[in-house]
Structures are given as structure tokens and as C-alpha cells.
Amino acid sequence: MRIVFMGTPDFAAAPLETIINSGKHQVTAVITQPDKPKGRGKSMQFPPVKEKALEYDIPVWQPVQVNSEEMIAVLKEQNPDCIVVAAFGQLLKEEILNLPRFGCINIHASLLPKLRGAAPIQWAVIQGDETAGVTTMWMDKGLDTGDMLLKKEIRLAEDETGGSLFDRLSECGCELILETLDALENGTAVRTPQTGESTYAKILTKNTGNIDWNQSAVQIERLIRGLNPWPSAFSYLNGKMIKIWSARVNEMHKGEPGEIIHADKSSFIVCCGEKSLEILELQAEGKKRMSCDAWLRGVRIENGMKFAKER
């Protein structure tokens, strides 16, 4: 099939490469988001999907608005049999959805109708879900509301992070999209309407990681894992931001939420709304990520010190 691929992050770059290397289909064009400034120097950085497309000399378009008349004309000229979409970041209007003969197929990183929206991978960890997965979906004009085609389910590990689940689900997406394209081409694809209660995975911002110590230790520990590596969970101690990368639930509970209730040379424990957290790995403002015991060699932490949501 002639395929136009739309996607932006690493999650989408992997299935793009899988389709290219399958030997079954021709990716004629890639549509991705515009380059963005990154880092202290604010140098422009290519989206991972663009980098992957350029490796294979595939033409790339980066529209601010994919539904513009200019882009619709480009897509008509491409005359794709199928448009494959993965974490693209823009909704498609019906004129584009109706363009390919096999439709627009989305690789969505949840078991629909659960966790529609922008950040299903991280929210699966934050919510404490036991399973996650990937669904291929025949797109309609709604937000992740189209008919389902295929699903693949996996179990989350006890120490699952947003990053590790991202990698595992990207692999699932690679397998599932080839199976889906085969089924479409062979006429064996079955469209199943989404039924049951839907949930929404709201977009993540840096402030999502601002820890509310009134929550239970279990909830905060899941937040830490879900937001690892981005945007990360954090709090403020003595006016300085501390990113917390790893923690362990502890049964101690004898202080106020956010209060350090135990500190020694190797670790410290913070009281939560229910139970407490032993901090295992962190990153002080302006410093590198390190184990807690390494950090404690250079700072003085005492019982009674308190974390806060603001400086």
C-alpha cells in the first residue's frame, strides 16, 4: 500500500521504521509537527519522526495546521491507500479522514475506550493500572472515538515508569500496525465500535509533577514513576527545587505531610497524607541526578525540615 505517515515523538518513530522495513508497503510522505527550540541554547530540534524519515530519504512536511487547504492538496497529490497516525498531536478534519481508501488508522497507546487523549502511557502508571496496551483504531472526527481494529494488552511491572512503559508499548505498536495493515489489505479487518465507560488522559504539563504531600504515599510513588523521565515529579526544600526520581513506600507516619520524619547518612523519609516515602534517587536544582546517599554526603538534612509546593 501507499502510506502517508503522521506522527511526532519516539513512540511514532519506531512503527514508522517498522512499516518502512516491512518490505510490504511504501511510505511516500511523512507529516510531523514543526521543529521546536530546545535546551539552554534554544537550538531548533527535529521531531524524532522527522529524523527517522530523513534517514530513509522520505519527504517530510511540517505544517502548523495539517487541515489547511495547502496540506489537503499535498495529501490528495500523494493519493495514499492509508494514512497511519501515531501521537501526531493534531486532529484531522473529515476531508482528510475520508481521503484514503483504507481510511486513517491511529496507533493509540491504551486499551480503548480507556484513556483517550494525549498522555495515556503516563496516566496508566499514575492511576495504578494493572494492564495497559495498544489499540489500532479507524479514525473519525472525535478524539480517539473511532472503531477499534486490533488490541494488544500487557501487564505493568511493579516498578514500571512512564519511560519503560513508553518503550514497551512502542514495540506493541510496531507489531500491531503491520497486523492491522495486512488485515485491511486482505479484507479481514473487523471494526468494533467503542462501548463502555471512557476515560480521558489529560495532557501533561511541568506542573503536573508538583507533589501534593497530602496525597497518600502510594499515590505519590506512582506519580513519581509515571512522570519519569518527563516531566518529572518535584517539590521544594528550603526554596530549592528537588526532582524526585525514585522512592519507596514506608509505613512510618508520625508527622505532617511534606515533613522529613527520619534522616540519616544514607536516606530520608517524608511523611505523606497516608504512610510515608523513603527517597531513593533525586536531583537537586542545578545538579545531576544521583542516588540519595550520594546527595546526602554533601548536604545536611534534619528531621522536621519540610517540603513545599512553592519556593
Using brief descriptors, characterize the structure shown.
8 helices; alpha/beta; 311 residues; seven-stranded antiparallel sheet; seven-stranded mixed sheet; 18 strands
Give a short synopsis of this structure.
Helix content is 26%, strand content 28%. It is α/β, with parallel strands linked by helices and 311 residues long.
Structure description:
The chain has 311 residues and is α/β, with parallel strands linked by helices. The chain has 8 helices and 18 strands. The protein has helices spanning 10-21, 48-55, 69-78, 94-97, 120-126, 162-186, 217-226, 292-296; strands at 2-7, 26-31, 36-38, 43-45, 60-61, 82-86, 104-108, 116-117, 131-138, 147-155, 200-201, 233-237, 240-250, 260-263, 268-271, 276-284, 290-291, 307-308. The strands form 4 sheets. It has a 7-stranded mixed sheet with strand order 5-2-1-6-7-9-10. Strands 12, 13, 14, 15, 16, 17 and 18 form a 7-stranded antiparallel sheet that branches. The chain has a two-stranded antiparallel sheet with strand order 3-4. The radius of gyration is 22 Å and the shape is elongated. It starts with a strand and ends with a strand. The relative contact order is 0.11.
Unreliable residue stretches: none
**Ends: how far apart?**
55 Å
**What is the ordering of alpha helices and beta strands?**
EHEEEHEHEHEEHEEHEHEEEEEEHE
Task: Please list the strands of the largest sheet in the order they lie side by side.
Answer: 5-2-1-6-7-9-10
Q: Which radius of gyration do the C-alpha atoms yield?
A: 22 Å
Fraction in helix: 25-40%
Mean pLDDT: 96
Largest sheet features: 7 strands, mixed
Question: DSSP helix count?
Answer: 8
Q: What is the structural class?
A: alpha/beta
Number of DSSP-assigned strands? 18
Strand content: 25-35%
Shape: elongated
